[in-house]
Specification:
The complex is a heterodimer of chains A (200) and B (261).
Chain A lengths: L1 H19 L7 E2 L4 H6 L3 E14 L6 E14 L6 E7 L1 E3 L2 E5 L10 E11 L2 E6 L7 E6 L5 E5 L23 E2 H12 L11
Antiparallel strand pairs in A: 2-3, 2-7, 3-4, 5-6, 7-8, 7-9, 9-10, 10-11
Chain B lengths: L1 H25 L5 E3 L10 E3 L14 E6 L9 H12 L7 E7 L10 E6 L8 E10 L3 E10 L13 H12 L29 H13 L8 H14 L5 H13 L5
Parallel strand pairs in B: 3-4, 3-5, 5-7
Antiparallel strand pairs in B: 1-2, 6-7
Classes of the chains: A alpha+beta (200), B alpha/beta (261).
Amino acid sequence: MRRAARLLCWVAVLSIVGGLGAPAGATSLRRAGLDDLVAHNRTIVLGEVLDSVSYWNDEGTFILTDVHVLAHEVLKGEGGSSMLTVTLMGGSVGDLTTMIVGGAELVPGSSYLLFLDRVDLPGVAAARTVKEHAQGVFEVTSDPSGGLRTVSQATRIGLVPDELGRTEPPGGAQGLPLDVMIRSIRALDQGGRGAGPEVK
Amino acid sequence: MTTLSRRLRRVTLVALVAVAFLSAGSVFAYRMIQNTSTGRVTSGQAVTCSNSGGFTHWNVRDISWLHNTSGQGSGKAAALQAAMQTWTNVSGSSYALTYSGTTSSGWATDGQNTLLWATGNGCTGNCLALTALVLQSGQVIVESDITFNASYTWTTNGNPYDTQSVATHELGHTLGIHHTEVGTTPRPTMYASYFGTGARSLESDDVSALQCSESRYPVPCTIDPACEEYCWNEWANCWDPGRDAYCKSVYDQCIAQCPCN
């Protein structure tokens, strides 16, 4: 009886754990760890989106959006100016909207930790953008204790497993305290070795 | 006896919770792509089919695709056609995804739905494939393009990354379907992560997503052109300044009997 009870309990626990492992929920992005994000993006900033403007590129082939970000803290790279322009694919012009499924979403008035790099976008060479799409944006939110946390936008879309089979973005659905995130990024940017544990 | 009874009750409760949880896994949990925030860049929200804000959808039945064969696009036609057919075959759906040949056009809003392989287009590094939806007011999809990252190896033999599997998944997005919340096996094609060739075929959750979309946004059919012309001629033969209303009713009755596909 006791053995049967234990077995039933294990079945229940495993079922629940298996169920909770299900993803929450566009485009196919391979999971990047924080080390990967830090190493492969030239600029990392903590900032607030002030406004954005969408337009057709010069060739008239794609709608782009310039997002103006007030950088509160530059954790890596181009720190010369507190104002940055981040160019994203997609946006609305007139009654036409181009949407990148699983793309970065930056809303004016909100704060984010952004991993930025320069890549070619339709009609714009070496544009400063969030090349990792949803993976390159961490929303800064308040937690119940009054602190600030950072949660990856990739938690909304699900990721393709990395070489170790991991699909959860750094910090997972709960995210990480902002100070821990900043320390980890700085440590990783400075070489990582001996500077503290990497946040997966 | 009391201890045993308590333990039995506890075990029963835990078992019931497990059963309820497992059952919940089989409940449909498909989500649709919503875009109500025009005026700013958005990636689309995952909403239920009954969400009051609606979701992205087509209002034409025939959705034709062009294939850019440069780069790794070569040799992928059969895989792409199979992926399209998978969605076309959904019972009760009138959407027909068709492979309309090759093109040299790329990642552009040009009125053509295009599938292509490239190392740019904003899909680099960890991006395997990117889907863009072009919408008009009312969340009506008027164009879609899919760019595959040519930096990765794309196969047609089932090895990662399997073209047909990823294409079937991305084509699901182009139909306005977001990632499902079903995580149990067999996994739906619209499961968020790559899981091999299992994504080539649809599960009931995927099928229900498309059926629900069409049930909420019935797609108008196209009246057979020959029949429509016949009715116009009937109206023209009938028309006289004093018989306008009558001839209009003749025309309407005629059109109502035309095949509509």
